[in-house]
């Protein structure tokens, strides 16, 4: 898809029915083993949804389906009303407005924090290629705003390779934000972080709430409690939704305690 077509389609993201993501009866079989088994899940526009569940429940595989890395064996996945994710490439899905952060940070270690954000902006295929052009003041303003948001203002001239693990994770979230995704997928964002970094990441996500639709997979229940607030938490188990509700509701659910929280 050329830049113009993708820009037009992007503006065409139709969320008139309130949801930004619809997964309908999705199954993913790996040689007959169902990593995802008739999964149904919707995310509303602006929602911050936490996904929890035991190892092997299918959380990462679900993100692979949403981002086009894995094709569903059956079922449908829609982004807004008009993007059929199962027919799109990973590239097209990213440029339609779904951004994903993997567990391991993948920043450019030999470049400064500022340069990483600048590169993320220039890799955004929605804008004209401007790799060697100087930044406009609007672009600089955007980078400054994101530096503050990810708590790296003051560190913008440090090499990314010298940042702590948590700071690298924030930088990668910042690089995602540069591309202004409408739906952000975060797979275990606080794994390996210190307690202080985890607390700041919860603050960061609480600030992003409502500005983007966000799906967060995490095993750190303290962190999930901080960011779930009164919103919905989905518990996955054996490739399907076992329970869904407020954090206090799912924590009190016997089935959830049996398969996950009670362990
Ligand atoms: N490419 C693959 N081929 C075969 N089996 C796979 C593949 N990818 C995932 N699986 C299996 O599918 C199941 C779901 O894995 P997945 O990584 O989605 O779980 P998860 O919920 O993310 O777990 P964790 O909390 O440990 O990250 C697991 O049993 C896994 O071994
Ligand atoms: Mg996983």
Automatic annotation (TrEMBL):
Q: Which molecular function GO terms apply here?
A: ATP binding; ATP hydrolysis activity
Q: Which keywords label this protein?
A: ATP-binding, Nucleotide-binding, Transport
Question: What InterPro entries does this protein map onto?
Answer: ABC_AA/LPS_Transport (IPR051120), ABC_transporter-like_ATP-bd (IPR003439), ABC_transptr_urea_ATP-bd_UrtD (IPR017781), BCA_ABC_TP_C (IPR032823), P-loop_NTPase (IPR027417)
Question: One Gene Ontology cellular component annotation?
Answer: plasma membrane
Q: Does the keyword ATP-binding apply?
A: yes
**PROSITE patterns per record:** ABC_TRANSPORTER_2
Q: What is this protein called?
A: Urea transport system ATP-binding protein
**Domain ABC transporter: where?**
21-263
Q: Which organism is it from?
A: Pseudoduganella lurida
Q: Which PANTHER family match?
A: CONSERVED COMPONENT OF ABC TRANSPORTER FOR NATURAL AMINO ACIDS-RELATED, HIGH-AFFINITY BRANCHED-CHAIN AMINO ACID TRANSPORT ATP-BINDING PROTEIN
